[in-house]
């Protein structure tokens, strides 16, 4: 790592300097500020590591907070200044290369854990002080029996000088003595406290075991207990304390008094609640965030007892356009308005709305009857988005796609439910948006499978899981084999052999279609060379040719021509051995830049076939500007010829296409030939070549070898 001022170490030291300057004036230490900064540097380094760690380590963050206590940073301002420094500068100096939203969320969680560690360490230190006071009190009580006048002076010094509240009561609960610290905590005078009963200080938020522990202590069944307890002050505010109550016995061991030690934790509790709120709520909209939503959902799922849930997952349609056109400030105001509307939709008991991030929101409903309630909630949400939102004088239409999941608790995890809702939401978006869809387990399974295939694609090519099958192209006039179409397959370790319809769209979406297509082209041309070397002289129609499909992504790739030339040259195969098939839809509206690579390949001698002809706009007038030499007629035009008599409309259409193609010097290939009657009808209509199960299904190259030899022998 570089130690230069602008390197990571330099930025870390800059953070430490800011931190030490903030803490040093309020820290009780004999160190100089420079020495104190050196002491803080390891803590800053630990925070930097936690910010950028793969997983969040709450215990390590707590340890950093605890270390501040042991470094004597115990002033009430120390924690607040530390958290302000971490909030303002940790991501700035230690996370500039990462995703800022995620790092800021991590920083917030770090602050929360640091505060918890700081509070725990401070409490342990205070408890140690309390124990020392209690021991001093016990020792003083023992000394009373031996030397009353000496022990009384010592006990009074400890009692009055303690920084924590101390009170003594008899076993009936009557308050006998209190020190000044306790009176200041309660805001009471000594006269108003002495003589009161302990039971007068009950509070609605007392833990269920509070008074049970008290009863056990005054009966002599326990020596002490410790808990967090709230008290009402005269001014109506609440005092929160760490309360330790101990039993004092006489020299014979009989219970005599109870001693209460109180530490004021009100400010610490308020800080904890503030940090908790910030860690569990979205800073922009004020809605619960992903963390709090998952806590609530997991609580519902673990409730059992026939509990059900309903969940609506909302994503705004076209929100990126708002950010790009009007700016992120306008986008933020739009999100705040949407959040307010969603909040008004979920006001019934058991309902909540949260913002997961970006423009994604989720609404949850629980309890009986969620099948009906979640539908009503979804309807309210969609209705709430109908009214335009006014931003900077513009009325913006808000549209959203909604995925709905409903079911019993306990069958799926929170992550699985959210994934199902996310998949369902994207299904609604794919259907045009501004609508809701109900989760479908089969659709979820298909989406999960697609995702699995997408992530496995890159390594599948490296592991050699793809292979090619070949389907022969037969001349309809003499029945000779003229070549074959290369059809790629994926031998998946879990799903078996997958056809191109299962993974080619995924490869196009991820960009892997370019290296995959290059591999298919190279393997197919290598196979064509082998056919020509072994069987070229034995076939009746000359050397066999290989047809290879090109995707739209490959067609627009700048390396298409050079890759093809390089593969042909390395294989020693002439361009006339190759035919590249391009779908009609890929060339609809194609400009000269898109057609230029095809023209260059056609000029070299490579045949270009227009695949699936008839499935697009079938712009016949456009054919003369395309550098194609072959039309591959889609099977939908020839299915009517499988029956006898053939569909007369199909006959007329095919006859017209063949006539037009031949007038433009284009050959016609027909796909999907399955019967002899169909093949004969196509031959009469003038089609040149055909492929289909009637001749052979796609298979290994040896099958084409056999067909070629049969053709030569015939």
Task: Give short descriptive properties of this protein.
714 residues, alpha/beta, elongated
Summarize the structure.
The protein has 714 residues and is an alpha/beta fold.
Please provide a written account of the structure.
With about 725 residues, the protein is an alpha/beta fold. The chain is built from 25 helices and 21 strands. Strands 13-14-16-17-18-19-20-21 form an eight-stranded mixed β-barrel, surrounded by four helices. It has a five-stranded antiparallel β-sheet with strand order 2-1-5-4-3, sandwiched between helices. Strands 7-8-6-11-12 form a five-stranded mixed β-sheet, sandwiched between helices. Strand 11, helix 15 (about 415-430) and strand 12 form a beta-alpha-beta unit. Helix 1 runs antiparallel to helix 4 (about 75-95) and helix 2 crosses helix 5 (about 100-145). It is elongated. About 35% of the residues are buried. The mean pLDDT is about 85.
Query: Counting H and I runs of at least 4 residues, what is the number of helices?
Result: 25
Shape: elongated
The largest pleated sheet is described as:
8 strands, mixed, barrel
Strand content: 15-25%
Radius of gyration: 40 Å
Indicate the low-confidence ranges by residue numbers: none
Oligomer: single chain
| Overall mean pLDDT | 85
| Number of separate strands | 21
- Structural class, by secondary structure, is alpha/beta
Helix content: 40-55%
Neighbour order of strands in the largest sheet: 13-14-16-17-18-19-20-21
Straight-line N-to-C gap: 76 Å
